[in-house]
Amino acid sequence: MKIRIKFAKYGPVKFVGHLDMLRYFQKLVRRAEIDICYSAGFSPHQIMSFAAPLGVGMQGFGEYTDIEVHSTKSSKESLLSLNRSSVEGVDVLRYIALPENTPNAMSSVAAADYFVTEREGYETEPALFEKFREFMALPEILIEKETKKSSAIIDIRPMIYDMECVEDGENLGIHPMAGKTGIFLKLATGSVNNLKPELVLKAFYQYLNREFPVFAYSVSRLEVYGNAGSEAKPDLKPLDFFGEEIL
Amino acid sequence: MRQALSDEILMSIDKPARYIGNEVNMVRKDLSTVDVRFAMCFPDVYEIGMSHLGIQILYDMFNQMEGVYCERVYSPWHDLDHIMREKKIPLFTLETQDPVKSMDFLGITVQYEMCYTNILQILDLSNIPIYAAERTEEDPIVIGGGPCTYNPEPIADFFDLFYIGEGETSYRELIQRYRENEKKGGTRKEFLQQAAEISGIYVPSFLDVSYHEDGTVAGFSSNNSHAKNTVTKELVMDLSHTYYPEKPLVPFIRATQDRVVLEIQRGCIRGCRFCQAGQIYRPVRERDVEFLKEMAVKMLKNSGYEEISLSSLSSSDYSHLNELLEFLIETYQGKGVNISLPSLRVDAFSLDVMSKVQDVKKTSLTFAPEAGTQRLRNVINKGLTEENILHGCDLAFHGGWNKVKLYFMLGLPSETEEDMRGIAELSERVAETYYEIPKSERNGKVNVTASTSFFIPKPFTPFQWAPMCTKEDFLNRARIVNNRMKEMLNRKSLKYNWHEADVSFIEGLLARGDRKVSKVVYLAYQNGCLFDSWGDSYHHEYWLKAIEDAGIDIDFYTTRPRKEDEIFPWDFIDAGVTKEFLLREWKKSQKEEVSPNCKVQCQGCGAVRFGGGICFENKN
Fold first, then answer.
1. In this complex, do B336 and A57 lie within 8 Å of one another by their Cβ atoms?
2. Are residues B223 and B253 in the same domain?
3. Which residue in B572, B578, B565, B574 sits closest to B212, CA to CA?
4. Which residue of B has its CA nearest to A88?
5. Contact A38 B16 (CB under 8 A)
6. pLDDT score of B7
7. Which of A185, B51, B355, B403 is the most exposed place for a label (fewest CB within 10 A)?
8. Is B27 on the interface with A (CB under 8 A)?
């Protein structure tokens, strides 16, 4: 039986890297006595797959991992024991059953929402919204994207599904964002197209003709989406849309 | 939650999770209910320090005490060290991220000599004066503990007091006296006087040491009526009704010990003559098997670890090992829990257990013959015979193993060329044992790795009188072994590694140093020495310069033969074993005579006066 877990990672724990989060969850499900399945072989490992790695230093409020279990208690009970066994800064938000044929979390990721806020004490763009609105209106955004082997000039505009200047993060539906001013981004994410929010910020500073202040902005990932439609006609849905509560 | 380091700093250093705290089972306390704050420090990087069981035991013990909050501190790695100095950020605890300087106590566990410069880094980054004599009422009381404090003298000037022995027994009283002193507005010195009366506590500033003209110790005298002339080590006699961390801290990043550690017993019956642990933890005390079963279950449940390791100096000597292992296998087989068994004698039983709990293809067998010939093994009282090793290997090879690791020491007292060549020859015979098995039953090529470290005489061992080799001598010996390896028939199956000689030499100086050596430690730190146990960080030239500038003759401490009646810098400490016993053993070693282990025959080491453990078992 496939289970999808949605969780938030925030506060100091944001400095725990992706592989260590994986190890954290392996121990968390054991502490919570989730009846998880192990792979066969002499060194069995838990059947667990994370949706999209979150960079070190970035908070996430809609993160996902899929696991496989032999049996399970209700969503409510499982959430309770997971959260009882977790630390401050890792909150398990949902625990839902997936239909058997659902593709795993990692391969189904299509997009993600980000919220970019200014960090206190750093020099940022004073007319941030005004300039960003100009930037948003550009028909194409060319930037040099470096890969491991080479670099290429690409247009990232098609990978930006949505951009908005947000006066008050209250409407984003994520409690810690309430009262914060910032820029909302919906970006292509996953194995087909992947655009990191830092690259959008870099492009923005390139447009401003200013040097990009690396630490001036704090980025949070708010939600990760899968595609419930087709490639030609995408229908983005949060990854927890694909599962159901266990009663 | 407040962080002592900004996001920018955390983003620009390696493994930021070392410094954020917040791990599973971290203790949180309401500070308004706390009157004594204790910073517990392991002076090495987080991944090493978090792997240490002793700290976890004391962390659990202190935090069970009402009004006491114990928090952790580890050495900031080079990258953060630079930033903290540049930006003047004071060293902080992981739990509350508060400055170490604001604590009541700073306890530092001293597990190996090559961490001494890290101790000075901890003090320095905390803005606590490095020398105890310069501290004021504003500074925490700095306490040292752990195996190296059985000779605390080379670091005595940096500590307000030392706790000699096992931590479970005297801390409650120490905290109580601290509270009383605080209540009546007593001074730092008044507290140290109170502390000096407690069993196991040594206050260096209350002890004067006088020296002969030749530099050896003439005598000790207490300069304060509260202080004792002899400090006797503390130990726990009942290890089944005491503190044990049922909820171990679980780090986010991978620690060196990434598993539950179950200490099954303390001490060792074997009495190898080079081994300090085998002497200072006497008498052997076992934990009750029912206690261990209960702890194993609770710790695995509370941590979520997928591995449990049985820990002791010689696990095969634990009398209920069979029962404990059967319980663990029965309870956890097929449930994703591995059982790891270090320090286990290789025999039919242990191989059977290992084949049940480990992947034969991945694991290697480990033997520590320590010396290449039976003669030298008798000198060091290492009970392992060549027959034991070859028989164990034969069994294991039939069971599918094909990797063997052999550990030796070079420079042991009385070592000859024959003993050195014996290291290569024994390795060869292990390989031959493998190739005697019919090809169809073998599992590919055999892989025999022999490693040698350089023998360093340690205090409170029969070899505390022994001279250490010079660096050139060490390297010569390694060359002899290496050349002999190359002459062996199965040389392609043999691999030989040897340790650096430079760092061993400094370790030798620190191990048997006196108070005069503290100057070397101080100058080495000022020269830039830090993380000396990490090969890449070690700067021999800084140490040499410090030794020269301090006016210290290193040969006096390392290669000099000691007279039988010499007073050693650590002789004011009573480690349980008597100096008469150690001397007896030293003389027996010169006659190549072995001593039976504690289970076979009592050797009268002196530990019987603690009134428990092995000394009182198997009697009647």
1. no
2. no
3. B565
4. B22
5. no
6. 92
7. B355
8. no
Domain shared by B290 and B223, yes or no: no
> In this complex, which of A12, A26, A31 lies closest to B20 when CB atoms are compared?
A12
Residue A146 has pLDDT above 90, yes or no: no
A84 touches chain B (CB under 8 A): no
Q: Indicate which CATH number applies to the domain containing B286.
A: 3.30.750.210
Taking alpha carbons only, the member of B36, B23, B34 closest to residue B95 is B23
For B300-337, write each residue's pLDDT tens digit. Answer: 999 999 999 999 999 989 999 999 999 999 999 878 88
Q: Are residues A226 and A133 in the same domain?
A: yes
In this complex, do A56 and B16 lie within 8 Å of one another by their Cβ atoms? Answer: yes
Tens digit of pLDDT for each residue in A226-247? 998 888 888 999 999 999 999 9
CATH of the domain at B23: 3.40.50.2300
Residue of A nearest to B360 (CA): A42
Among B417, B500, B416, B421, residue whose Cα is nearest residue B456: B500
Which residue on chain B is closest to A43 by alpha carbon?
A: B359
B195 in a structural domain? yes
Question: Which chain B residues are within 8 Å of A16, Cβ to Cβ?
Answer: 17, 20, 252-253
Q: What is the mean pLDDT of chain B?
A: 95
Q: Is there a contact between A111 and A187 (Cβ–Cβ < 8 Å)?
A: yes
Same domain, B198 and B255: no
Using the CB atoms, write b or e for B590-619: b if 16+ within 10 Å. Answer: eeeebbebbeeeebebbbbebebbbbeeee
Closest-CA distance of chain A to residue B471, Å: 42
Query: What residue numbers bound the domain in which A139 lies?
Result: 109-238
Using CB atoms within 10 Å of the CB of residue B229, give its burial: 0 to 12 exposed, 13 to 18 middle, 19+ buried: exposed
CA-CA distance, A204 to A187, in Å (whole number)? 15
Q: Which residues of A touch B253 (CB under 8 A)?
A: 16-17, 20
Q: Which residue of B has its CA nearest to A47?
A: B336
In terms of domains, do B348 and B328 share one? yes
Total domains present in chain B? 2
In this structure, are B96 and B146 located in the same domain? Answer: yes
Tell me: do B40 and B152 sit in the same domain: yes
Q: Give contacts of B3 with chain A, Cβ < 8 Å.
A: 12
If one counts every other C-beta atom within 10 angstroms of the C-beta of residue A174, the result is: 20
What residues contact residue B290 under an 8 Å CB cut-off, 6+ apart? none
- What would the pLDDT profile of B91-133 be if each residue is shown by its tens digit? 999 999 999 999 999 999 999 999 999 999 999 999 999 999 9
**Chain B interface test: which of A10, A22, A29, A31 (most B C-beta within 10 Å):** A31
CA nearest A55 in B: which residue?
B11
Report helix, strand or coil for A109.
strand
**Each residue's pLDDT tens digit, B198-249:** 999 999 999 999 999 999 999 999 999 999 999 999 999 999 999 999 999 9
In eight-state DSSP terms, residue B100 is: G
Whether B518 is covered by a domain: the verdict is no
Tell me, yes or no, whether B529 lies in a domain: no
| pLDDT at site B334 | 78
Please check whether residues A54 and A116 belong to one and the same domain.
Answer: no
Tens digits of per-residue pLDDT, A108-132?
899 999 999 998 888 778 888 999 9
Query: Residue A34 belongs to a domain with what CATH number?
Result: 3.30.70.580
